[in-house]
Write a structure and sequence with these properties.
Chain A: One of its GO terms (molecular function) is serine-type endopeptidase activity. Chain A: One of its GO terms (biological process) is protein processing involved in protein targeting to mitochondrion. Chain A: Belongs to the peptidase S26 family. IMP2 subfamily. The complex is a heterodimer. By secondary structure, chain A is an alpha+beta fold. Chain A has two helices and ten strands; from the N terminus they run H-E-E-E-E-E-E-E-H-E-E-E. In chain A, 20% of the residues lie in helices and 27% in strands. In chain A, strands 1, 2, 3, 4, 7, 8, 9 and 10 form an eight-stranded antiparallel β-sheet that branches. Chain B has a single domain, classed as Umud Fragment, subunit A. Chain B is an alpha+beta fold. In chain B, 27% of the residues are buried. The chains are: A alpha+beta, B alpha+beta. At the A-B interface, helix 1 and strand 8 of A face helix 1, strand 3, strand 4 and strand 8 of B.
Chain lengths: 175, 177
């Protein structure tokens, strides 16, 4: 009677204490350090999702690396879509602020990337909704840097920051 | 040199290490709770600059809630805090004048005639209440909704101006057009 009630209350207290420690720490970790995500779509083929809808890649997203908005040309990053804030898109960084690049299918032939912005493109040109459609994106929309493919196991690899040579900027602003 | 000194030092060292780890543990735990509170509920913000006068003066302290942006419930007339489109490390504080699809007037100092444009999908049009002294969407264009961080709902300081924030002094009439 009395011991059983005491045990139940102590269990509840321990559970609540664990809950209030575990939930904020986990949420903060997933928001600020790293999380995983499944990639959908064909805009980054062949780097991501080469099998199409049959097998979607799962990537490791590293928030910690972009906490100061530092990205390099060639990085694969996830960002909030400028056309739909409920969606995140994953693309490769082609140009940083100050660069002049030659666009593919944008309304202007040459674009200078404004301060605080970047130019992103999918590897599968023509099947990608990227900066060629919506222009340079603000660095504030950066979500994470995709560093590794975690699933399927035969596609375990580190994603390299390679800038395709034909997409290199026409002019780079010296800092 | 007493023979129990080494064990005494070891015990003191262990208790200091224990206390340090416990302190780090509590700091981490409360830091995470503070992060979750600010990210998903709201927090206190100090505003600087003249662009929102007379509604918000320089060095006023306000409370910003972050729930509206997660539920996509930001409306015309709301005063919001957003990341600056040209410098993601700094924040701007402006009023939402137009949502996606709205018609907004873009006053350019060079144009004699007032031109208008439509706010693109996924973007918002911001203007400061102090139109003469505000760098806002009239200068840098509409900003993506994803840059919005929170909505200011209450002014806390100075106390003689405590309470909900006034409507725009610039006579915008917000209808569902």
């Amino acid at each position: 009677m009395m011991p059983a009630q005491g045990f139940g209350r102590r269990y509840m207290k321990a559970f609540l204490k664990g809950f209030f420690v575990a939930v904020p720490v986990t949420v903060t970790f997933l928001d600020q350090v790293a999380c995983v995500a499944r990639v959908e779509g064909a805009s980054m083929q062949p780097s991501l999702n080469p099998g199409g809808s049959h097998s979607s890649d799962v990537v490791l997203l590293n928030h910690w690396k972009v906490r100061n908005y530092e990205v390099q040309r060639g990085d694969i990053v996830s960002l909030v879509s400028p056309k739909n804030p409920e969606q995140k898109i994953i693309k490769r960084v082609i140009a940083l602020e100050g660069d002049i690049i030659k666009t593919m299918g944008h309304k202007n032939r040459y674009v200078k990337v404004p301060r605080g912005h970047m130019w992103v493109e999918g590897d599968h040109h023509g099947h990608s909704f990227d900066s060629n459609a919506f222009g340079p994106v603000s660095l504030g929309l950066l979500h994470a840097h995709a560093t590794h493919i975690l699933w399927p196991p035969k596609r375990w690899q580190r994603l390299e920051s390679i800038l395709p040579p034909e997409r290199a900027p026409v002019q780079i602003e010296e800092k | 040199m007493c023979q129990w000194c080494p064990s005494l030092h070891r015990t003191m060292l262990r208790s200091i290490l224990g206390k340090t780890f416990r302190l780090l543990g509590y700091t981490l735990q409360y830091g995470c709770i503070a992060h979750c509170a600010f990210e998903y509920v709201g927090g206190v913000v100090v505003c600087s600059g003249p662009s929102m006068e007379p509604t918000i003066q320089n060095s006023d302290i306000v409370f910003a809630e972050n729930l509206s942006r997660h539920f996509y419930a930001i409306q015309r007339g709301d005063i919001i805090i957003a990341k600056s489109p040209s410098d993601p490390k700094s924040n701007i504080c402006k009023r939402v004048i137009g949502l996606e699809g709205d018609k907004v007037f873009t006053h350019s100092p060079s144009d004699y005639l007032k031109s208008h444009s439509y706010v693109p999908r996924g973007h918002v049009w911001l203007e400061g209440d102090n139109l003469q002294n505000s760098t806002d969407s009239r200068y840098y264009g509409p900003i993506p909704y994803g840059l919005i961080r929170g909505r200011i709902c209450l002014k806390i300081w100075p106390l003689n101006d405590f309470g909900l924030l006034r409507d725009s002094p610039n006579g915008h009439r917000f209808s569902d057009e």
